[in-house]
């Protein structure tokens, strides 16, 4: 499969470089994830997620890179990681291979089209993969811009899951589960 490794232009003209993550990205990617987690009220995280180490991050990157049904892309602006998207696919031998999708972007780069670019790249990759049959994701019900992005890409609402409280405890609503048949 073709490697993802090129520049894209955002809505306001910024150039971002999107590529597959490497183990050497572990520390910076962890820092970026922590930044967008702590500045967004719409990300679903657990206490374990907040205690990740660079070694944990390195192992996560390695596990995704070693799984032919998984992909981790990072977006860089001026050499700094500003966002990522990951597709964690089930192993090849599963009867109905599915993938879980997750994305995060630093606040300063949201609303500029980066999410659409990252999502399109992952969806194109998943369709070319020919193993995965269904993609799933979870999104905080109050995050309407993300829900709209996923609906536009062809995802449908599968259902709601219990009440989730945002990290900063300012919002509490259902977790929306969305799926896409490939």
UniProtKB/TrEMBL annotation:
Signal peptide, first to last residue: none
Keywords: Transferase
Gene3D superfamilies in the cross-refs: 3.40.630.30
A Pfam family of this chain: Acetyltransf_1
Record-level Gene Ontology MF annotations: acyltransferase activity, transferring groups other than amino-acyl groups
InterPro entries membership: Acyl_CoA_acyltransferase, GNAT_dom
Residue ranges annotated for the N-acetyltransferase domain, each copy included: 16-182
Organism domain of life: Bacteria
Protein name: GNAT family N-acetyltransferase
The organism of origin for this protein: Pontibacter arcticus
